[in-house]
Specification:
single chain, 301 residues, alpha+beta, 2 domains, six-stranded antiparallel beta sheet, 16 strands, 29% helix
């Protein structure tokens, strides 16, 4: 079982959209995040002069874009090189609070972050090539992999989900007996289109299973504020949703942040997920199942 972690966010100027720092208890890393409008103030901070890696985030031609770099003095690298890039709007700097990372360490972290971003495929990189990993001792490599794990944990907490892998290996749902795990298996059926999808609620994730069907194309409005249409297009581009004649098929298991997000992708338009998904083999909606579960819990308490 995964253990809990404590993340401390400090909003430097008291504004949620301003500069902030992030630290995890028992992790030596230190994160500084800043909007470009406050870059001058951010680079005056002592940690900005440490050895570390940095990530620039923004958009180009309406698509999210990032750049991953490293430096023995991050502030100098950004001032001398990356201020020439006009597309980015926020920067994230990752260092060790004791400034004990060396050049080989940060080049390794840079290479691994580029590898992760390209493997997950949720954001384009301005980096030309994937840098090679420097030669590190077995112990140093293990330390950097542990350091990287913390970085990848902190990023989603800062609303940066570009490195959040939502593809999932096969879930042995057949091995999960419904009688012993009530409420874990759900399905969504579009009768007119003869489209059926199944999902499993496992460890707090709503995972649509590989082989599930989805609508051929997005038929809802693309002015939808939820931007589920962007998610649909993203999954097509990533090869999660593949063309299968009159519809699409989930090539792999995929974890959604909500039943509505999952329902929208399957249905090709915004959908009230708690009503659309039903307990497999029944007419009970996810909403009804959830309400019953909460009612039982309240009764126990």
């Amino acid at each position: 079982m995964s253990r809990g972690q404590s993340l401390e966010l400090f909003f430097i100027d008291g504004k949620p959209d301003g500069m902030l720092t992030a630290e995890v208890f028992n992790w030596t890393g230190h994160v500084l995040m800043t909007p470009r409008t406050q870059l001058s103030e951010a680079l005056k901070r002592k940690e900005a002069r440490y050895t570390g890696v940095y990530l620039l985030f923004g958009e180009m031609d309406g698509e999210p874009l990032a750049y991953i770099g490293e430096g023995e003095d991050i502030s100098e690298r950004i001032k001398n090189h990356d201020t020439r890039k006009d597309w980015w709007s926020s920067a994230l700097l990752v260092v060790s609070s004791a400034n004990n990372l060396n050049k080989a360490h940060v080049k390794y972290l840079e290479a691994r972050l580029v590898e992760e971003a390209r493997t997950i495929g949720r954001i384009n990189l301005e980096n030309g090539n994937t840098p090679s990993r420097p030669s590190l001792s077995e112990a140093a490599q293990s330390n950097m992999e542990a350091f990287l794990e913390y970085i990848l944990m902190v990023l989603p907490a800062l609303r940066i989900d570009s490195f959040l892998e939502r593809k999932r290996p096969a879930v042995a749902s057949a091995a999960i007996e419904p009688a012993k795990n009530p409420g874990t298996l759900f399905e969504l059926f579009l009768k007119k289109e003869n489209i059926r999808a199944t999902a499993i609620l496992l460890d707090g994730e709503f995972i649509v299973e590989a082989g599930s069907m989805a609508r051929k194309a997005w038929v809802g409005t693309r002015e939808d504020k939820t931007s589920y249409w962007k998610l649909f297009d993203e999954l097509v581009e990533q090869g999660v949703l593949i063309d299968h004649g009159t519809h699409r098929i989930f090539q792999t298991n995929y974890a959604f942040s909500s039943t509505s997000a999952a329902g929208a992708v399957v249905n090709g338009r915004s959908t009230a997920g708690p009503l659309a998904w039903k307990l497999k083999g029944t007419d009970r909606t996810y909403r009804d199942w959830e309400a019953e579960k909460l009612s039982v819990q309240n009764g126990i308490e």
